[in-house]
Amino acid sequence: MAGSSFIKVGASENIYEDKMHHGHFNMCGYAAPKLDTVRIGFIGLGNRGPSHVSDMTCIEGVEIKALCDIRPEKVNTVKKSLEGSAHNPEAYTGGKDDWKKLCERPDIDVVYIATPWSLHTPIAVYAMNNGKHTCTEVPAAKTIDECWQLVETSERTRKHCMILENCCYDFFELLTMNMARQGLLGEIVHGEGAYIHDLLAGNFSKEKYYDMWRLKENLRNGNLYPTHGLGPVAQVMNINRGAKMDYLISMQSKDFMMGKMANELAAKDDFYKPFADKSYRGNMNTSTICTDKGLTIKLQHDVTSPNIYSRIYKISGTKGSSLKYPLPGKFSIEGNENWLNQQTYSDMEKKYTPDIVIKVGEMAKKVGGHGGMDFLMNWRTIDCLRNGLPLDIDVYDAAAWSAIAPLSEWSVANHSKPINIPDFTSGSWKTNQPVGNTLQKGGTTKVM
Amino acid sequence: MAGSSFIKVGASENIYEDKMHHGHFNMCGYAAPKLDTVRIGFIGLGNRGPSHVSDMTCIEGVEIKALCDIRPEKVNTVKKSLEGSAHNPEAYTGGKDDWKKLCERPDIDVVYIATPWSLHTPIAVYAMNNGKHTCTEVPAAKTIDECWQLVETSERTRKHCMILENCCYDFFELLTMNMARQGLLGEIVHGEGAYIHDLLAGNFSKEKYYDMWRLKENLRNGNLYPTHGLGPVAQVMNINRGAKMDYLISMQSKDFMMGKMANELAAKDDFYKPFADKSYRGNMNTSTICTDKGLTIKLQHDVTSPNIYSRIYKISGTKGSSLKYPLPGKFSIEGNENWLNQQTYSDMEKKYTPDIVIKVGEMAKKVGGHGGMDFLMNWRTIDCLRNGLPLDIDVYDAAAWSAIAPLSEWSVANHSKPINIPDFTSGSWKTNQPVGNTLQKGGTTKVM
Questions:
Q1: pLDDT band at B11, cuts 50/70/90?
Q2: SS3 content of chain A, % helix, strand, coil (to 5)
Q3: Per DSSP, what are the bridge partners of residue B24?
Q4: Model confidence at A262, in pLDDT bands (50, 70, 90)?
Q5: Which residue among A125, A315, B262, B401 is least packed, with the fewest CB closer than 10 Å?
Q6: What is the dihedral of CA A260, A262, A263, A268, to 10 degrees?
Q7: For A62-112, what is each residue's pLDDT tens digit?
Q8: How far apart are CA B89 and CA A120, in angstroms?
Q9: Distance between CA A219 and CA A208 in Å, rounded?
């Protein structure tokens, strides 16, 4: 037969063996018991946390029960913003382990985690072990071992562990997924995503990230922030749900800027002394992933160079393709040498905009948060929990998407050699069903 | 020291050992004796050839001496187009080896080669051995062995072997290179290029490519057409001239379309029977290259999927970046969150447009040929030959840029493992001088 039969020799490095656990409880498609009211505790109120809290005040059936941050002023600011609302959360602050007390409360259903990356998994595991669903900011885990901790804990406790990948709820990404599901792009061949965002000044800021955590993260190499690019592509490709990511290769440029800046700052300001003379993440990481069905995914990561923000969201199929960045979202359909014109695009948009955008999109745009996608994500999550529906994004997604960082770190450190991507579903990907984010079910939760 | 000191372990596969020849004659920067009149023979008049011939009729000091194509009608058409001009070339046609006779003529200085890919190296080697300079269409060679044949022959005969990489003469690529040379983008970190061009119908056309040669080429995997993307990036990065490409990794999607189309056509039309049930190149190839100085280059190749044409020309530096496709060429400079606006871009363009564009650009646009870049390239080549100047693009560029195809083919076939990129300069890259295409010298040849 023609087609896919080029013989490949050799194999990826198999550093992390799959922890197949037969008879495991499959959390993909798992519907937890309905919650009429969703009682939430928020941990981490620095950058992303307050925005999630604010979203929740606009969603029916939510009770904000507790707020936690090690810095009292962060808790106070959010608490103050809730004055006069129906919410009067208890504050947990000042101690390094206060988040544990929040997780232990019996009157909380969901813990939202927006802390520095290194606390995402420890808190999520602790919260699930205390009977809470968890929604964690990206990346959900920093190591392959942490990925497995999330999976094992979620399966054992039957608690959701969702990764708050807001880009899966971007209007254009949702439109593309719906068009792809309807077959307009044909068979999907290739996808791209990126996180190209100049954060150099922010990473060296003394105020922006608690205890300089984000600068310290950059002492690792690899694609450290893969999920914004990967999440929407993985959903279109049905990764973990009929398909799986097989192996990846990763290459990184040298660091041309961070080490230099650290040294320059340290020469003028003792505060930066601990950051001098260190090896920082190279500017640009380019990783490519091959799926079991021979689809490819290209992911890039550069948060140092002075580039224009881009997630390079591209889906390329046998009948058409979509692309966003540097242009606004565009579609091309076979037989055309140019992008669909404005009129045709508008017609497509009218026909294929998914129900969730029609229902909640306008409100989401008003509430804001990355153009509305944050609100769509939070509303959808609450709506699923209140209707006893599976979440669109499960613990296997959280694990597989986050795993790209440590896997790419290994490949970069090993001369860009290929490395296998673990199957966190223990084989269940073969029969797991695709989930659209398109309100096939639910949608009853009101927006206030 | 901070920066580039992440320790990498392992190594690329070293399939093709460097053929270091000490005491070799270095063709980089080589100035051949001046030619007052440049007498040209053209081989291959199917698609690209006639356009080169037409360009040459507008350039002072050129004599078109001979035309060769296996198909008489192709030669006749071009010969007819020259009626009434100063040129009355002799025709070579009908026989498979007629090109040899052309190469043997004593009254020709340069052989232009625009044949199917598999003849580029055999003809170039034969022509150089017969004392001719050679300008060959892309790619110059199909295998690493052919790359070395070109290098060894050029060094031994001291004849130029230029690859006709027209994209190096695109106005935006030239502007970017000039701005990069002036330091406006800072240190260069990362570059990108691509050949994304839907040629599916063309490759299966019975007429477009002689004896279906281009379809047959697609029975190989890999990035088969890397030079349009790589050439301009390599020039900005001074590859072979102070820097070198170290190793590459390559990943390819499955073939989703060509095999299927071949089988469908064969079912209806016996002509296509020999093309049925074969393995074709996968739709999308993504290759990444690491240089000796830790810069990275990403190259893509998809000539099957219905995408909008793109060469994704990107240069990313420590102070700014350039990007062309899907937008027209844009620059961003550090401190700005958006692309330079139209006014600032125009000011930059005015200040940094290189002399060659100022001098010949208007005429080039009139003559046409990919927006003028073809003419700029051909004029510049003739001008260098007439003034006894080194060409902008030499045999080492021809070899290194073309080598990406077989190297990526190997990597794809070997599970995307890294592979070393041979040093075709035998170490001379360390001291070779960068060449700008900016008319530091020459420029005397008139346009007619």
A1: confident
A2: 40, 20, 45
A3: none
A4: very high
A5: A125
A6: 130
A7: 999 999 999 999 999 999 999 999 999 999 999 999 999 999 999 999 999
A8: 75
A9: 18
Cβ within 8 Å of residue B25, ≥6 positions away = B155, B156, B158
Contact yes or no for B251 and A288 at CB 8 A = yes
Tell me the average pLDDT across A145-150: 98
Residue B369 tokens, joined? 């040929």
User: Cβ contacts (< 8 Å) between B290 and chain A: which residues?
Assistant: 251, 253, 416
pLDDT of residue B7: 56
User: In the predicted model, is pLDDT for residue B2 greater than 60?
Assistant: no
pLDDT of residue A20: 65
Bridge partners of residue A320, in order along the sequence: A333
Residue B69 phi/psi, 5-degree rounding, is -155, 145
CA B10, chain centre distance (Å): 32
Q: Tell me what pLDDT residue A1 has.
A: 33
Chain B neighbors of A262, CB-CB under 8 A: 2
Convert A390-445 into a string of H (helix), E (strand) and C (coil). Answer: CCCCCHHHHHHHHHHHHHHHHHHHCCCCCEECCCCCCCHHHCCCCCCCCCCCCCCC
- B361's tokens: 């650009």
User: What are the φ and ψ backbone dihedral angles of B366, each rounded to 5 degrees?
Assistant: -65, -45
- Using the structure block, give the residue that is written with the tokens 């008139």: B446
Tokens 């209707």 sit on residue: A387
- For residue A255, the number of C-alpha atoms closer than 13 Å in the C-beta half-sphere is 27
B164-196 CB burial, b ≥16 within 10 A, e <16 = bbbbbbbbbbbbbbbbbbeebbbbbbbbbbbbb
Phi, psi of B247 (to 5 degrees): -150, 165
The amino acid at residue B328 is: P
**Mean residue pLDDT across chain B:** 94
**The pLDDT of residue A367:** 84
Q: What is the dihedral of CA B30, B35, B41, B45, to 10 degrees?
A: 70
Q: Could you tell me the two tokens for A319?
A: 């009948």
Distance separating alpha carbons of residues A210 and A117, to the nearest angstrom: 11
For the residues A152-180, what does the mean pLDDT come to?
Answer: 97
For residue B106, give every residue at least 6 positions away whose Cβ sits within 8 Å of its Cβ, in sequence order, or none.
Answer: none
In order of A224, B127, B149, B160, the CA distances from B108 in angstroms are 58, 10, 22, 14
Query: By C-alpha distance, which of B97, B137, B132, B101 is closest to B121?
Result: B137
Tokens at residue B174, please? 């030239």
Q: Rounded to whole angstroms, how far apart are CA atoms A329 and A313?
A: 9
> How many other CB atoms sit within 10 Å of the CB of residue A270?
9
The predicted-structure confidence for B205-254, as pLDDT tens digits, reads as follows 999 999 999 999 999 999 999 999 999 999 999 999 999 999 999 999 99
| Peptide bond just before B326 cis, omega within 30 deg | yes
Q: Which DSSP symbol is given to A183?
A: T
Burial degree of A433 (CB within 10 A; 0-12, 13-18, 19+): exposed
Q: Taken in order A155, A160, A163, A169, is the CA torsion positive or negative?
A: positive
Question: Cα dihedral sign for A62, A65, A66, A67?
Answer: positive
Contact (CB<8Å) B2/A318: no
* Residue A409 Cα, gap to closest chain B Cα (Å): 11
| Nearest chain A CA: its distance from B96 CA (Å) | 31
Q: Please, are residues B287 and B412 in contact by the beta-carbon 8 Å criterion?
A: no
Closest residue by Cα to residue B132 from B123, B140, B141: B123
B294–A253 CB contact, under 8 Å:
yes
Say whether pLDDT at A28 is over 50.
yes
Average of per-residue pLDDT values in chain A: 94
End-to-end alpha carbon distance in chain B: 57
State the smallest CA–CA distance between residue A229 and chain B in angstroms: 17
